[in-house]
Amino acid sequence: MSAAPEQTTEEAEVEMTDGFHLVIDALKLNGINNIYGVPGIPITDLGRLAQAEGMRVISFRHEQNAGNAAAIAGYLTKSPGICLTVSAPGFLNGLVALANATTNCFPMILISGSSEREIVDLQQGDYEEMDQLAIAKPLCKAAFRVLHAADIGIGVARAIRAAVSGRPGGVYLDLPGKLFGQVMEAEAGRRSLVKVIDPAPAQIPAPSAIERALDVLRGAKKPLIILGKGAAYAQADDDIRAFVEKSGIPFTPMSMAKGLLPDLHPQCAAAARSTVLAESDVVVMIGARLNWLLSHGKGKQWGPPGSKKFIQIDIEPREMDSNVEIAAPIVGDIGSCVSALLKAMGDDWQHPPAEWTAAINAKKETNIARMATRLGKNSSPMDYHSALRVLRDVIKERPDTILVNEGANTLDQARGVIDMYQPRKRLDVGTWGVMGIGMGFAIAATVETGKPVLAIEGDSAFGFSGMEVETICRYNLPICIVVFNNDGIYRGDGVNPGGGDDPATTMFVPGSRYDRMIESFGGVGVNATTPDELKQAVDAAIASGKPTLINAVIDPAAGSESGNIGNLNPKSALKKKGA
Ligand code: OXT
Ligand code: ADP
Ligand code: MG
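# adenosine-5'-diphosphate complex -> structure
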């Protein structure tokens, strides 16, 4: 335990500690060694002292990016990522990331300093006054405030347990400025800290649930497994692979579950997605929700009504029947559920009928051939496919590289083209389709794992967190950012329908040079206009580990509105000028 630096004469005989040190000691005691944040009143010294105590404190330019970093740190490590912010505006900046973490089931703790309770509660206009606890509550799994230094240990313990147990999510911890200066005897402080034992206890499924699921599965003629990011989070990689292979059932990964089993695995049906969703008769959902990304489990995409039975593995009981009836719910943690299934399957499990796998393979071949034609073109200027072809090769050659991906066309095309080979190597916009995760995810991904990062960013997507290139250069992180610069949102050839001088709402300054941004901070900038230039620049970046930003010039006319989800974009039915 660290002692507070300044002590009064009376306190001099006894070792003392204070709120600052207790927060740091509580985090360290629980194996948390990284903090992502932005300094300022009242937490500047907390960051400084944490650094002095050997923690890694990464200071960002904006709290939203620090929050996204904390969230993905939680996803990658199963230990809550910590985001540290100042009061009111800093807290609010971090809140988008906290809500996004909760939505995506990523464990994180947003720790914000806050103003004086007495003044805030009487609304007397304190510096950065805001009732932060009340505002955070509906946007996270749990929210706590600590008023006494002696309660810091319990507060941190509750926050950790809430973030990682059951369905993981975001937690808010409110620390009023006055708390940090509170002094207490170091020995009492030491005793007040809690090392959280078994923070995410195994949740063993009921044997009857396993039997019910296997009964449903035995009756299947066209079974399908859908792997979601919950399955990747669970880190039960070997058992999941063993279950898929022993069952012989085709699988398709949701975006962030790509690589949990390699995309080139013979049972992978990602390239026949529409076929397997529509034609399967039993679907095993492992850590994936039947939300908008899966058309809520119903409608045309899922074939005729009544043609499907679902088995769902999830740690959250209330997820069951949230959109359609689940014939066989298995509630528990994925590791325990999958290993129970494996055991109960016995040694004579029948693989699905050959007609089913043959039909899938035929569809896969058609789609892969279609994709090959698009990838084979050497378009000038580059289109999405000619640029992505070389990035696909980069990941093939360096499969331990972590891929961060956001945008619309840049996201949807990259997801299809770039095969993933290892678990938890693809990080993207997730459940909300949110822009702005890019630099925060990239920074935490390399800080937490030590792996190189390739961030493939639409030019709009990049803009949401682009200032963090300075952070990347400051900490000299091995991150290579490729900005797919098509001069705008979805496309770069928009026209102002009003005919005025203002550009179209989806347009950016044409021909911008994002590579020059990173050069001003000492990083490597490259302008790439051909696939060869792009490949050379990425290879050099990954080999050197130097912060690099490549401005990949993409045909402004190559994209489509909203990427692959144009169907969700309402359009006015009224025919007006330019509409
Ligand atoms: O089976 P069929 O035949 O159907 O074929 C499918 C697969 O089988 C096949 N396939 C393959 N073929 C061959 N080989 C391989 N390997 C292979 N793999 C697959 O390909 C097809 C399609 O497969 P896919 O993609 O798996 O299937 P599908 O049907 O697309 O899947 C459906 C979905 C819903 C699961 C999938 O599309 C998906 O995951 N989508 C996520 C979409 C998403 O989240 N998008 C981001 C949000 S868009 C919009 O909101 C944007 N905004 C607004 C905004 C946001 N988001 N956030 C904030 C804070 N503010 C504002 C903005 C501002 S995007 C955006 C910026 C955009 O501009 P940029 O400049 O950044 O980007 P550009 O567009 O590049 O300019
Ligand atoms: P995707 O977007 O990939 O489809 P979702 O975020 O929709 O994935 O779903 C992830 C699901 O995984 C959530 O319902 C969550 O409760 C569940 N989950 C997360 N971790 C575990 C775990 N360790 N065991 C069981 N279920 C989990
Ligand atoms: Mg764009």
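# post-check
Residues 207-361 form a domain with the Rossmann fold fold (CATH 3.40.50.1220).
Residues 6 and 185 are 13 Å apart (CA to CA).
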